[in-house]
Amino acid sequence: MAGSTDWAKLLEDLRQEHGISQRALCEGANIWRGTYRRFRRGSARLTIAQLERLLGVLGYELDAMMIVGRDKGA
Fold this sequence. Notes:
This protein is mainly α. Helix 2 (22-29) crosses helix 4 (48-57). 55% of the residues lie in helices and 0% in strands. The chain has four helices and no strands. The radius of gyration is 15 Å and the shape is elongated.
């Protein structure tokens, strides 16, 4: 599973690629900029809902799938 710093780097890379300011990103996602800054530094976590909103502003969706492990006896 990706750590919060992996998500922070991904979001920052996407934000820069799209030419969106931190202010515009946070306002569009209804997230306080201080929270986003702390998340980028690794000193705060985002909820799944916050992450989904940030990705949505950038034109992406968060998708998840269940990973089924193999039986150890097989």
